Amino acid sequence: MKKLLNRRTFLKGSLAGSAAAVSVGRSQKAMAKDFEGYPESMGVLVDLSRCVGCRSCEAACNEEQNLPAPEKPFNDFSVFDEMHHGQKRRTDETRYTVVNRYDVPEIDHPLFRKIQCNHCQEPACLTSCFVNAYTKTPEGAVIYDASVCVGCRTCMVACPFYIPAFRYSSAFNPRIMKCIFCYDTRLKNGQPPACVEACPQEALTFGHRKELIRIGHQRIRENKDQYVDHIYGEHEAGGTAWMYLSPVDFEKVGFDTSVPKEPILNFVKDFLAIVPMVLTIWPALFAGIHLLATRKDGIKKQQQTEGETEK
Amino acid sequence: MRSTLMATLSIMIMMAIGALYPNQSFALDAEDAPEVVELDALSDLYEPVTFDHAMHVDAAECVECHHHTTGQQPVDPNCLRCHATSEETDSISCGECHSAERFSPQDLKERSNPDLYHIDKPGLKGAYHLNCVGCHEEVDGPTGCQDCHAMTEKGKKQFQVSIVPPKAGSKKDAHE
Ligand code: SF4
Ligand code: SF4
Ligand code: SF4
Questions:
Q1: Where are the domains of chain A?
Q2: How far lies A76's CA from each of A49, A104, A304, B106, B171, in Å?
Q3: A42-263 belongs to which CATH class?
Q4: CATH number corresponding to B2-97+131-165
Q5: What SS3 class is residue A40?
Q6: Is the dihedral of CA B120, B126, B128, B134 positive or negative?
Q7: Beta-strand relationship, A98-102 and A165-166
C-alpha cells in the first residue's frame, strides 16, 4: 500500500511541480556538471588472466546477500555452456554476479570474466532515476533504496552494462536487484566485498580506485606480453569503480568497447540534475530512453551474431 | 667512524662475492628444507593442504617459489633490478611477506605508501594459488580445487553442493 501511495503522491507532484522545477534547477545542475567521482572511492581491479572460473565469488555473493538458492550448485561448471536467447549468463534477480567462459583462439586455455555492477563514477542508473532511489556513496558503492522505487525500470534501460534486474515476484513491491559492493555489511566498515575475499587467485584486487589504476598500469608495464595495454573502466562510461585487465582484446571476452568514454547520461545530465521535476519534460526523457534502448538493441544483435560465429 | 668504514667495506666485499657466486655463497640448500609442510593458516571452506615439500624440491628450483629469499638469483627481470644480489632472508616462509590479512584496512594503508614498490604483492591466499595453479597448468599438475584440498562442511554449505540441478545431463565438478 505504501508503494501505491508513493506512486500517487508522485503523480500529484507532477501537476504542481512544474513551476518549482525552474528555480531549484540551477544549483543542482552546476553540481552535477563538476562532479567527477569521490576522491576516496574504493574499487576492484578484475584480472582476467588470473581468473580460473572456480565460481567461489558467485557462491560467496549468494551467501553474503541472502540471495535465493541457485538452480545448480556453485561447483557445477556446466553453467559455462548455458546460452539464454543466444547470450551467456547475465546478472538477474537471483544473482548479483556471474562468471562466464570465453574460448579465445589465440590462447590455449579458456578465459573467464566475472560481471557485476561496475559502480560507475557517474552512474547512468542514478542519473536516470527520477525518484532518487540510487545513491553513490563516498566509498564508491552505488546503492539502491527499494522504499522509494516506483518500479519504472528506467535504470535497467539506462545502465550501459545491463546490470540492474527487476524482481517480478511481487507486483506491489517493486524491487531492483543488483550488486551493492557489499556496502551495508562490509564496504562501509572498510572491509573487502565477499566475492573479493573468496577469490583464491586474487583475480579481484580491492583497494582505492586511484591505487588500483597505478597497480593496473604497473602490472601491464612489467608483464608486457600478458596484457593488452588498457584498463577497461578507467575511462569507460566516465570511469567505473570496478575495472578490468585482459590478456586479449576486450571485445573478444564480451566487453562492450563502444561504451563512450564520458558519462553515459552526460548529454541529458543537465536536465536530469533537476531530477524530481523531470516530469515537466517527459517527452524529452522518453525520447532519450528510446534512443538508449535502440542503441542497446543494435549492440545486442551484434553480440548475438558474434556469439553464433564463436560456436 | 672506523667501525662504520669497516662495516661498509665488509658489506661491499660480501656483495662482490655475491655477484660472483650468486647461487652458491649465501644460498640455502634444498637439503635444509622440510619434507612436508602443513599449509593450514587459511583453512576455512577447504581443509589444510599437506604440502609434499621434498617432492617439489625435485620438481622446481627454490627460487621459483621463494623468489630471492633463499639467496638464489631471481629469474624475473623485474625482480633482478633490486634483488640480483639479495642474500638469504631471516625467514623464508610464504606468510612472512604475503599477508593473510590481505585487503584489511591496515594492509591497504601500508600499500598506499607512495615510496613502496611492492604495491601489487598478492596476499597469502593469492600467492599460494597463483604460484601453484600457474605452475600446475604448465606441467600438467592437478588444478581442480579438491585435488589439493577437500571441501569442508562449511564449504559444502557455501557452494550449495546438495542442490540437484533440474535437468538431467549436467556435468558436475570433474575433480570431486
Ligand atoms: S554498472 Fe549500471 S547499475 Fe552499476 S552503477 Fe553503472 S549504470 Fe548503475
Ligand atoms: S561486491 Fe558484494 S554484492 Fe557485489 S558481487 Fe561482490 S559479493 Fe556480490
Ligand atoms: S573466485 Fe576469482 S578465480 Fe574464481 S571465478 Fe571468481 S574471480 Fe575467478
A1: 2-30+273-310, 42-263
A2: 21, 22, 25, 36, 7
A3: alpha beta
A4: 3.90.10.10
A5: coil
A6: negative
A7: unpaired
Cα distance from A187 to chain B (closest Cα, Å)? 11
Cα–Cα distance measured from residue B94 to residue B35, given in angstroms and rounded to the nearest whole number: 16
Helical ranges in A40-118 per DSSP H: 56-64
How far does the centroid of ligand 1 lie from the alpha carbon of residue A230, in Å? 21
Summarize pLDDT for A22-52 with one digit per residue, the tens.
Answer: 333 334 443 444 456 788 899 999 999 999 9
Query: Distance (Å, rounded) from C-alpha B111 to C-alpha B82?
Result: 19
Listed residue (A229, A194, A234, A193) closest to A212, CA to CA: A234
Q: Where are the alpha helices (DSSP H) in chain A?
A: 2-16, 18-34, 56-64, 124-128, 154-158, 194-198, 209-222, 266-272, 282-310
Cell output for B175: 575433480
Contacts of A168 (CB under 8 A, 6+ apart): A93
ipTM, 2 decimals?
0.79
- Chain A residues in contact with B103 (beta carbon < 8 A): 191-192, 196-197, 206-207
Nearest ligand, CA A97: 2
pLDDT tens-digit profile of A235-250? Answer: 999 999 999 999 999 9
Query: Which chain A residues contact residue B172 at CB under 8 A?
Result: 73, 75-76, 78
Question: Would you list the DSSP string of B34-72?
Answer: -SEEEE-TT-SSBPPEEEEHHHHHHHS-HHHHHTTTTSP
**Per-domain residue ranges for chain B?**
2-97+131-165
Under 8 Å between Cβ of B159 and A73: yes
